[in-house]
Amino acid sequence: MKETILEVRNLQVEFTGDYNQVKAVDNISFQLHRGETLGIVGESGSGKSVTALAVMGLLQHPGRVSQGEILFSPQENAQPLNLSAFSPEEMQMYRGGDIAMIFQEPMSSLNPVYSIGFQLTEAIMRHQNVSLAEAKRIAIAGLQEVKLLPSDEQLQQQYKKTDGRKVGQLVKEHKEAMLNRYPHELSGGQLQRVMIAMAISCNPALLIADEPTTALDVTVQATIIDLLAELQQNRNMSMIFISHDLGLISEIVDQVAVMYKGKIVEFGPVAQIFSQPQHPYTKGLVACRPTLNCRLRKLLTVSDYMNVEETPTGELIIQTKEPPQTEEITSSEINQRWANLTTKKPLLEIRNLEVGFPVRNVFGGTKRYNMAVNGVSFDVYPGETLGLVGESGCGKTTLGRTLLRLIEPMSGQIKFEGQDITQLKGQALQKLRREMQIVFQNPFAALDPRMKIGDAIMEPLLIHSVGNTHSQRRDRVVELLERVGLDAEAMKRYPHQFSGGQRQRICIARSLALNPKFIICDESVSALDVSVQAQVLNLLKELQEDFKLTYIFISHDLSVVKFMSDRILVMNQGKIVEAGTADSIYQEPKEEYTKNLIAAIPTGSPERLRKRN
């Protein structure tokens, strides 16, 4: 039997306010064996991140561990340490050394004014009695281990044919150049690799990864998952991997703890949890992610599997429900719909569109342009959902904003209902805004935090003089809120008083205020829990049917795009590299780039579950 490295017993974490007390973690217990990976899965607010912060001793006031023990054994066959009884000073001896953590957002975890080399060596010297030179060597070795830097052999091969200078000097300069780079000079995936290198630099016995891939593309996400799995196995390191996505969890972990409202509602081996879930909440999490092997009319959600009631004492009563039957859309229906769509004249016609951003030289002149959109042409038909997929930096968001004239094109045509809109200005452009809207990725950033929800939705009505009186406009706002599943009381509240899914519903309501014909959804569900994501995707489909909307749906997640779209465009480096119906793109991808996007999607299927000893 494997030795236990971490045992959590009856842990309870409370947050005390002026008028109430919230149990964020409610009497949970679990064990993690040495060399194994435990997945903790659940929606936002389930208590999974608070559990990790309690283990790390990073709970901020007014949070506190009010009950329980956190027993940690950094060394084999050693007496376990009760971390919950440690003072902040005592925890510093172990945090970052024997136990390390990777946070969700690497940019907020790294100091923007210091180079990555400085921050790596600082962490190493804090926990190891080494010189600066040795700390740099360890930092470089860590960056090579996470594959952010090539190995010495690869670097020597790279510079082997360089004339005039010694290979060793060039290799050294290459390494130094990476250490001297600042966080803003690296991509999201590269920053996450820096965080992983920092976390493993002191050879921790336990690594906690809290949503480490949420903000990343599926291909980068897959790379990070593979990297973490490789590091864990090579170092025989124990790991806790936290996510809201059970499909993603299944790619890397051995055991899974499913958390709901601060409690662990199900625990077991990953294959068992995924293929034979017992708790209704787990069943809902498994079912709510779009699948690639079939097209469903509607995604199931957690609420389809259970009803939850709260007693006056705060206890939850969960009643299991029999979910409705999922109905698939047949191939003949899909083909017939596409045939019907193409009988109409295109709503939007794009021809040879080019968008570039100037790259200026040191004297201020424009030397060249970085082409974000490079000679793109396509049509969008009335009532169609056109999916636009690709990795970050491929140009899909720039393309979407250019279609709305939020970014000016360098050349090409954008025809909306037969009219070239690239030359529209003033009132003509403002009139166009009524017909074309956008739902952004981050709903909190898209709403003014100082403006009540009712005022935010009413603002476009005022700008475009829709409604004769305040009462008429107010009724329109109430109608929109109810249509997206919120009530009239929401008008009086501010954005911070809503969850992420509710805020996105508010943004959708605002985009519908002027009865547009065309909406761009720019990564509009990528920041949401999978269960909330399913609700929003269902809502978007219902609204399209009711309001006869046309969508361009932008995402890096091909499974989500396939559920939503009639047709998909695959974009890479500013160009459309593949186009076709949603089913044909998935079943018979022609480009290697498209195949990689599909292969990177975490499905949780039995053949994708990792085989663990």
TrEMBL record:
Keywords, alphabetical: ATP-binding, Nucleotide-binding, Transport
InterPro entries noted in UniProt: AAA+_ATPase, ABC_transp_ATP-bind, ABC_transporter-like_ATP-bd, ABC_transporter-like_CS, Oligopep_ABC_C, P-loop_NTPase
GO molecular function: ATP binding; ATP hydrolysis activity
Protein name: ABC transporter related
Organism: Richelia sinica FACHB-800
Residue ranges occupied by any ABC transporter domain in the UniProt entry: 8-286, 357-598
Any one GO BP annotation for this protein: transmembrane transport
Family listed: Belongs to the ABC transporter superfamily.
